[in-house]
């Protein structure tokens, strides 16, 4: 699909057809696109929990109760649902893991280039940790970059998606032992194909006009 057409037609799906499943190869393609999401200094502070089975989706839906019950069916009737998790801190060990992966992928021509990457990445982490004092927010911002990449890719692939911030974070974090893994749940995304009953599919898009949101210099 054309990129502009995708931007104008993709939307937050409100109801899914539980009988329709994303083909395996196409879903794996989406996961690979997600893996290649951009992040500041390639920090990749994320982890994705992928629910493909009904049992796995039931575990996620357990965190969509009370005030968030309206989101439960989106998870249960989806083809797949993904929990986007964000790291709660950046350790020296994790920075070294990133650096070793960079080296394995052939990004350094010599030790000077490798040290430059080490210093730059460490510098950003310390800047957000010690000066701006908002390292968690910076990391979560990177996770939302990945969210945008997935939503647009799904639209290009003709797959419907629903990003959801309406869930009980404590319940989800506990269900998947995220704190013990140095992670926290940031956002949940359901993927699949819209139901004929989805009212939002028939509504026109609404965005502010370009004269409101653009300043052309």
Overview of the structural elements:
This protein is α+β, with helices and mostly antiparallel strands. The chain has a domain at 3-89 and 139-196: NADH Oxidase (3-Layer(aba) Sandwich). It has nine helices and four strands, in the order ααβααβαααβαβα. The protein has helices at residues 3-9, 24-35, 54-61, 72-76, 92-104, 111-131, 135-156, 169-175, 210-213; strands at residues 46-51, 80-87, 160-164, 183-192. Strands 1-2-4-3 form a four-stranded antiparallel sheet, with helices on both faces. Helix 2 (24-35) packs antiparallel against helix 7 (135-156) and helix 5 (92-104) packs antiparallel against helix 6 (111-131). The longest helix is centred in the C-terminal third of the chain and has 22 residues, at 135-156. The two termini are 32 Å apart. The model has no long low-confidence stretch (mean pLDDT 97). Residues 8-193 form the Nitroreductase domain. It comes from Acinetobacter beijerinckii CIP 110307. Pfam families: Nitroreductase.
